[in-house]
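Friendly challenge for the regulars: who can give me the structure tokens for this chain first? No prize, just bragging rights.
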Amino acid sequence: MPESEDAFRLDVPRLRAAFERASPGYEAAAELQARISAELLARLGELRLAPRVVLDLGSGTGRVTRELKRRYPRALVIALDIAPGMLREARRHQRLWRRFARVCADARRLPLADGSVDVVFSNLMLQWCEPLEAALAEVRRVLTSSGLLAFSTFGPDTLKELREAWAQADSRGDGHNHVHRFLDVHDVGDAAARSGLAEPVLDVDRIELDYSDTLALMRDLKAIGAHNVTAGRARSLTGKARLARMQAAYELKRRDGRLPATWEVIYGAAWGAPGRAAAVSVHGEAHIAPGSIRRAGGVP
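First reply, four minutes later:
Bragging rights claimed.
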């Protein structure tokens, strides 16, 4: 597996195109995303908020945007996504008396005024932002001083079985990476601190799904647009021999007739602080209170 940072740099146009292609069938395949968004919405529901403006950052097809508008009917609710196709699909979730705005934009360059948003909700989008603090700094910029960011993103154990299987298949070394690299909870917390967001609190959960075979897993990833869009990806079709080696390596993990796939989910919340200086970086590190990062029960 390549170790250089450049190898894991995201190809943004390719990323946008992947989600554009996935948009028509995204909702039917995005069961995990729906499960995680439900948990994030439940956490948001524990807070008594009366926002005037709510931003669904990385809204996808707008299913969650519709729920945010139902929950905050008096608020201006904005669905923002990088893929126009996702926002076209979001029209299906519009209701006569519960309409929301749709904006196509990059999370790293939000077309919104400073201090104009009370709640930013972001479900499983931040893992596609590079560098992460660029997107979080934009969130900080648009949040009011009392505004809230509630988010989920994937951690480094996500798809670890697939990553390990590819590593075994490539034991001779092909110079390519096959699975996107995800930041761990401490890196996410550091990025939030460097961006100037206040009081970040994060915790981690793990979800394990199972599949009949590796092709079923890869079809699911394709259906939700989760392709490998890093600079270090293979630029040609994967050879049949290498694919067979990966499948054979993954088969060694089969139990009870099914193949496991792990998803590490990081949940987080932070408060806005427009005008607050970003944390000073010392030798590439920013420090936040250790007690502000915790792991969910049962996570080693």
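Confidence is low (pLDDT under 50) at residues 231-237, 275-300. Residues 31-45 form the longest helix (15 residues). Your move, everyone else.
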